[in-house]
């Protein structure tokens, strides 16, 4: 029965991807930013202002931030 073999193969592949067969959960980072947007409002010319964005990793693997850009 080719359909059962195909379904069994797909099921095994999906289980391997999720880590259930190996017994190890998949390790992934999970970024959380408390305030991802901050409105500076009107700013006087040449005035230096700052704001800290608190970034948390709620995952179980290293979170690597490679690039940051302003919007």
Describe the structure.
- The chain is α+β, with helices and mostly antiparallel strands.
- The chain has one domain (2-57).
- It has one helix and two strands; from the N terminus they run αββ.
- It has one helix spanning 2-18, and strands spanning 31-33, 55-57.
- A two-stranded antiparallel sheet has the order 1-2.
Properties at a glance:
single chain, 71 residues, alpha+beta, 1 helix, 24% helix, 8% strand
Separation of the first and last Cα atoms = 56 Å
Largest sheet: 2 strands, antiparallel
Give the integer mean of the pLDDT values: 80
Q: Name the helix and strand elements from N-terminus to C-terminus, one letter apiece.
A: HEE
Low-pLDDT residue spans: none
- The assigned structural class equals alpha+beta
Q: How much strand content do the residues show?
A: 5-15%
* Strands, count: 2
* Percent of residues in helices: 10-25%
Total count of helical runs of at least 4 residues: 1
Number of domains: 1
Name the strands of the widest sheet in spatial order.
1-2
**Gyration radius from CA atoms, angstroms:** 22 Å
Anisotropy-based shape: elongated
